[in-house]
Structures are given as structure tokens and as C-alpha cells.
Specification:
The chain is an alpha+beta fold and 269 residues long. The chain folds into two domains: 2-89, no CATH class; 95-242, DNA integrity scanning protein, DisA, N-terminal domain (YojJ-like (1). The chain has helices spanning 2-29, 34-53, 57-77, 79-89, 98-115, 130-133, 145-151, 191-202, 231-242, 251-264, and strands at 119-123, 137-142, 162-166, 169-175, 206-210, 217-221, 224-226. Strands 2-4-3-1-5-6-7 form a seven-stranded mixed beta sheet, sandwiched between helices. Helix 1 packs antiparallel against helix 10 and helix 5 (98-115) crosses helix 7 (145-151). Residues 246-252 and 265-269 have low confidence and may be disordered.
């Protein structure tokens, strides 16, 4: 009986590891051109297996060489995407620099607020913001309050658009966001607030807005706008949004509990 539980635990561990590997692979190519190339490679593999089964030696030989070349080409052509994928992997758990990035955003927002300089920052969550990143100027720079303040300085090329933050990286600046379609929005809200609400309606991104007229700081999530936040409230709200829920456990903890319960419930122990 104990042997069966050990074998079952090994099987469960293998499934969990395979799941993690596939998840990391998808994380690499998410919202990049590489996803299309990956689909092409999968098609080549399927055709390769079919030709091998049918014993079509010539076609099988050609596809084998093509597959080898395509892997090398994939690594060379999509090196920037792979680098960003590695950066995403580094954003897990205690290795994540996102909290530091959030602190820098809070710091920058209040500096801009005191100077009454308008700002619009989109912080990516689960839904990718690649279409909006492509509408701006790509940066791929670490989030710092100094850089944020420089970007939003009036009369600079990028100050009118929005910034997209991925983890601890400023992916792009000068981005264009969709305006809200909500007919009940107050007419007193400016373009930045409407763009923040519009993007948060279409994605799960968190939008930070600094009003140019009043210096007021707002956060928009799921199409709802929270205004008039002081420094303490703003930092707390932003951190709470991105803080993992206590009930959210890792897949490894889950399988560990299951296996432990099975072993502890073994008769005769």
C-alpha cells in the first residue's frame, strides 16, 4: 500500500513539473510575435510525425533538417522577446521587483501631484497590454520615480501619452488608451481619467492618474475610478490590489498537502 502511494506521489509530481514547464513556455511567448512561430513549429512537428509514420523518407529528412534550423532561427530572431520572457519569470514570488516598482510609482505620483503635472500609468496584470504598448515608444527600462517624472515633464515628446508597466519594467511610453464608453461619467473628468477608465474597462490593468488641473491622484480598476487619494491611502490601495491573497497557494503546496494526507492516512502507520 505504501509503495502504491509513493508511486502515485511520483506521478503527481511529474504532472506538476510538466504543468510548470508548459506554463513557463507560454509565459515566454505570451503577447509576442514568437507565439506565431511556435504554432508553426508545432505544425512542422505534427507533419514530421505523420511522414515518419507513413515512412516518407525524403520528406521526413527535409522536415527534420528544417525543424533543426527553425529552432536556431527562433532563438536568433526572437532574442528580445525571449529576454522579456526571462524577465517575466523573474517576477515570481520573493524574486519579484514589482513591490519596489509600486513604491516608485507612489513616490513619483506625489511628486507630480505637488507640481500639478499630469500623468497616466497602466500597470499590467493577467491580460496582456501588447496592442497598447505597440501604440507608443518602447523603452524596456526599470521603473524609477526619476524616470517617470522625466517622461511626464511638460513639453517633452512623451508626456501626453500613457505609460505601460509590466512587473518592474516600463515597457513603453506615449501609449494611446481607449476612452471610456460609459455615458454616466462626469463631464468634469478630463481625457486622462477617461482613458484610464476606458482601458480598465477592456482589461484588468490598474490605472494611476494624476490630474494636471488639481494634482488629484486617482486609481481606476474594472472601469471604476477612485479619486482624491492621499499618499497613505494611495500606497495602501495599490499594494492591496497586487498583494497575493492568503488563500492563493502554489501548485507545489497543493500537491504536497494531497500526498501528505494520503501517506498519513495509510493503514497501520
Amino acid at each position: 500500500m505504501i509503495y502504491n502511494y509513493i508511486e502515485l506521489s511520483k506521478f503527481v509530481l511529474e504532472i506538476a513539473m510538466l504543468w510548470f514547464v508548459f506554463y513557463v513556455l507560454l509565459l515566454f511567448v505570451k503577447d509576442t510575435r514568437a507565439i506565431q512561430v511556435l504554432k508553426g513549429i508545432i505544425v512542422i512537428i505534427i507533419i514530421f510525425l505523420i511522414t515518419k509514420e507513413l515512412q516518407l523518407e525524403t520528406i521526413n529528412w527535409i522536415l527534420g533538417r528544417l525543424f533543426t534550423i527553425s529552432i536556431i532561427a527562433f532563438l536568433i530572431i526572437f532574442q528580445p522577446e525571449l529576454r522579456r520572457g526571462l524577465a517575466r519569470i523573474g517576477q515570481f514570488g520573493m524574486f519579484s521587483g514589482q513591490q519596489q516598482a509600486l513604491d516608485e510609482i507612489v513616490k513619483s505620483a506625489f511628486i507630480l501631484s505637488k507640481k500639478k503635472i499630469g500623468a497616466l500609468i497602466a500597470i499590467e496584470r493577467e491580460i496582456g497590454l501588447r496592442p497598447y504598448i505597440e501604440s507608443g515608444v518602447k523603452m524596456d527600462s526599470h521603473v524609477t520615480s526619476e524616470l517617470l517624472n522625466t517622461i511626464f515633464t511638460p513639453n517633452t515628446p512623451l508626456h501626453d501619452g500613457g505609460i505601460v508597466v509590466q512587473g518592474s519594467i516600463i515597457a513603453a511610453a506615449g501609449c494611446l488608451f481607449p476612452l471610456t464608453q460609459n455615458p454616466h461619467v462626469s463631464s468634469s473628468l478630463g481625457t486622462r481619467h477617461r482613458a484610464a477608465m476606458g482601458l480598465s474597462e477592456e482589461t484588468d490593468a490598474v490605472l494611476v492618474v494624476v490630474s494636471e488641473e488639481t494634482g488629484d491622484i486617482s486609481i481606476s480598476v474594472n472601469g471604476k475610478l477612485t479619486r482624491h487619494l492621499d499618499e497613505k491611502e494611495f500606497g495602501r490601495v495599490l499594494s492591496n490590489i497586487f498583494r497575493p491573497k492568503k488563500s492563493r497557494k502554489s501548485v507545489f503546496d497543493f500537491w504536497h498537502r494531497i500526498v501528505s494526507r494520503m501517506i498519513n492516512s495509510t493503514p497501520g502507520q
